[in-house]
TrEMBL record:
InterPro entries: Glyco_trans_19. Keywords: Glycosyltransferase, Lipid A biosynthesis, Lipid biosynthesis, Lipid metabolism, Transferase. Condensation of UDP-2,3-diacylglucosamine and 2,3-diacylglucosamine-1-phosphate to form lipid A disaccharide, a precursor of lipid A, a phosphorylated glycolipid that anchors the lipopolysaccharide to the outer membrane of the cell. This is Lipid-A-disaccharide synthase. Its EC number is 2.4.1.182.
């Protein structure tokens, strides 16, 4: 087996999980790989030689601006590594801001660049495809429509599925006997999932709590759960919940337990909607944005939907609300209807089940690893050159 030195960069916790799973899948196929790069706890456990301490850092640019000097040093360290160690490939995961800079530095040194979990240019940045074409040699995408989107621009691309389903499948097998949240006869459980980032929680949770209060006024027999993905944000969420004066139980971690116990989930528009869809739980999708930000962003949006499940289904299979104000009544009324109308609930569940039958299969990390090795074999194959003066082939 060939020895490989691979640089891999992931920006946040979700990328760290997917990066770790990819590393393990690559090592299964070839244990003679040494990984260097940027990652957090999960990637470090998988064998990453991290070039800097990423425990308190995020490659999201709003966060990066507060630690600009540290991030400039981090970029400098990565470029120095490229120059002195010359990895056989650079694998970038998500977050285009910082990773685009790494791609540019690698390309200057003729190091192949693979982008795994590409930025969502199809939603809000199609004009950046030209930049992507200049910086990246191979794309590995996780949504089926992304393949045709990038192929029409002439980019080498393959579709492997979403690695989230690898994690959910593993979790399901390990915690197969996980107990559900207790529910009284005739009681509904409504769960609020405001997101995993501080700004998402601050922006969305107060709105979800107001909607939940209106739901409870109409249907008193509901129990409200609030998802807290990390202990880090428990105090913040508790303050927001207490300020709402709404009886609600905060559950740290155990997202699967929350989703499976729920009659309906109110959630942000991101990857959490795929988790909810995986368990076929009815949901409402909410995206909070200021009127000014919406006015600025609207011309650049290329999809009619805001929720991933609706984008993937290419139709509205779950209700979604784009909130430009604090008018939560529409959201509450949609939730009440979905709780009371069994026909709509069953249709929502069947649509989610059908979508998951299409896209919810595990194995994305294994497929991505196979595609990376296929790409690397092509990159390292000897080139056969025909000599004009000699009939013998020359191998270089």
């Amino acid at each position: 087996m060939n020895n490989y030195k691979i640089f891999i960069s992931a920006g946040e916790s979700s990328g760290d999980i997917h990066g770790a799973n990819l590393m393990r899948s690559l090592l299964k196929k070839n244990p003679n790989i040494t990984f260097y790069g940027l990652g957090k706890e999960r990637m470090n456990e998988a064998g990453l030689h991290c070039l800097c301490d990423m425990k308190t850092k995020s490659l999201m640019w709003l966060h990066a601006l507060t630690e600009l000097s540290a991030f400039l040093r981090m970029k400098k360290d990565c470029v120095r590594f490229f120059q002195h160690e010359t990895p056989c490939a650079v694998i970038l995961i998500d977050y285009c801001g910082f990773n685009f800079q790494l791609a540019r530095a690698a390309k200057k040194l003729k190091i192949p660049v693979i982008y795994y979990i590409t930025p969502q240019l199809w939603a809000h940045g199609p004009w950046r495809i030209k930049k992507l074409r200049k910086l990246v040699d191979f794309l590995i995408v996780i949504y089926p429509f992304e393949k045709s989107f990038y192929e029409t621009s002439g980019l080498p691309v393959t579709y492997v599925g979403h690695p989230l389903f690898d994690e959910l499948d593993r979790e399901r097998r390990i915690n197969n006997h996980l107990s559900m949240e207790e529910k009284q006869v005739g009681e509904y459980i409504v769960s609020l999932l405001p997101g995993s980032r501080k700004q998402e929680i601050i922006r969305l949770l107060p709105l979800l709590l107001r909607a939940a209060k209106q739901i409870k006024q109409t249907i008193p027999s509901i129990k409200i759960l609030v998802s807290c993905t990390s202990e880090q944000y428990f105090s913040l969420i508790r303050l927001i919940v207490e300020a709402s004066h709404l009886p609600a139980e905060i559950i740290v971690g155990c997202v699967r337990k929350i989703i499976q116990s729920s009659d309906i989930c109110l959630a942000g528009s991101g990857t959490v909607t795929l988790q909810i869809a995986y368990y076929h739980t009815p949901m409402l999708i909410v995206y909070k944005i200021s009127p000014f930000a919406y006015f600025i962003a609207r011309p650049f949006l290329t999809t009619p939907y805001i929720g991933l499940v609706n984008i993937l289904a290419n139709k509205m299979i779950v209700p979604e609300t784009l909130m430009c104000s604090n008018n939560y009544s529409r959201l509450a009324n949609q939730a009440i209807e979905l709780l009371r109308n069994n026909q709509k609930r069953h249709l929502c569940i069947e649509n989610l089940r059908s979508l998951m039958d299409d896209i919810g299969k595990p194995g994305a990390s294994e497929r991505a690893a196979e595609e990376i090795f296929r790409f690397l074999r092509q990159e390292t194959q000897p080139v056969i050159v025909k000599s004009e003066t000699n009939s013998n082939d020359k191998m270089i």
